[in-house]
User: Fold this.
Amino acid sequence: MAAPQALGTLFELPLEAFGRTVGAAAGSSDTSLTAESLAALQLETAGQEAGDGAAAAAAAAAAPPRGPTCIACGIGVVGAAGFASAEEQRRHFSLDWHRYNVKRRAARQPPVSAVAFAALVAADEAADEVGSLSGSEASSDADRDAEEGGEGGGSGAAGPQFAFQAADGKRYACWRALVAPDRERCAAPPPAADSLAALRALRLSGGRWAVVMLRGGHFAAAVFTVDPARVANPRQPDKFEALAHKSAHRYVVRAGQGGRQSAKDAGGKYAKSAGSRLRRYNEVALQRDVAEALGGWTELLAGCSLIFVHAPSSNWQQLFGGEEPLLAKADPRIRRVPFTTRRPTFSETKRVLRILVTLYQLPDAAESAEEEAAAAAGAQQAATEAAAAAAARQEQDAAAAVAAAAAAEAAAAAEEEARRKKAEKRARQKAKQKEARVAETAVSRAEAEAAAAAAAEDEIGAAAAAVAAMSGRLTAKPAPVSGGAGGGKGRVLRAGTLLFVAAAAAAVLAVSRQQRRQLQPASGMRRRRQ
Assistant:
């Protein structure tokens, strides 16, 4: 859907154009509104500030070459015209153009003209540099210190738009903070008719508004007179008259670390360094500065019809906490700034007020209906395509699952076949090993039998040789002896010896046979065991 377009201010819309309400601008994109429309307003506001500087420079050039000067910006020096009055010089010192040239002078760099500064402000890449012109040199990231999402911060996505329809059928929207208090300060949202009546009254009379900003050690507050005629005048460069303003800065957040020192102390990490002591002292000093500024504006704040506050996280407690709060939390005039802001400065308070009074034009109902129908058709087509893609993915997943199951089955079969072949190979190896053992045993047995037989034959031969030798000695003819009785005794002795030898030979043969019989059963038993 087309984003709302930022027109002028709501004071430029004729009073009769405030017709009937059409509800909250929920059909519009709050994100587009905050990101695109506010970006254009930032450039416009920056150009307005630069225009103030250019106007001051033009006034100084038109004045005679005397009067107050500004060395940093080159006004009233080297033959250039000075300021027409001390008041004009003081107004010049409050411009970001002057602050920027002061920093350049401290860095030994030449000053830039008002026109060059306006171009620098308008450049997108220089937005961060210009945003840190006033205050300290700390980066804007350190100033935020994770406080943007806390209580009192901007909420661009919370639906801050109030929409209404003019008599000619055009649809407009403004910030809801102008016509209705914050949700926590009212029991129920006011009726749309009451909000429209409040917007008409605001368009008719304007009033006195205050802007209070406190974040990251930076404080800025200002009270403005909002004159409908002055704001609607396109030739008026400064739309709002500042009745009072105050800004201060204290070093309370460590650069690059984020978070206040008091928050770290409350978490149980009480540091004792010189920097931590300085930050604790500065927190107390900043609270004192804020109390002195707001305390001195009691009458001004009492006469304000609206008070806009931007104080994220713990800064909100500094304004509304304690026994004697600086601002009453239940005051229906107090409204949160409903968008993201820059570092709190006096120039930022004017920019916040400029954005708050901006009027936005919403797309026509017919165009919105057509865009909604086109968006619905596109969403339906996208859903159909997504469903078709999901079905195709499911089919692919099913086919992949079937293929994976087949692959797993094939892998299991291959593994089983490999296991079977391995078992068969192991069985063949065992059979070969058994045959080798049997053959080796048979060879060993045959060798043992042959050795036993040879040993028995050797024993028999030795016994036979011994018997033969003995029988030869016995049968040899002995020497003759005297007397017949001696001869008879010799024959008897030889006969006995022969008998003895024969018995010995028979015993040897019996022993050899017995050994053979013992070897044969042992061989049979080994054969049966194998």
In short: Confidence is low (pLDDT under 50) at residues 26-51, 59-65, 124-160.
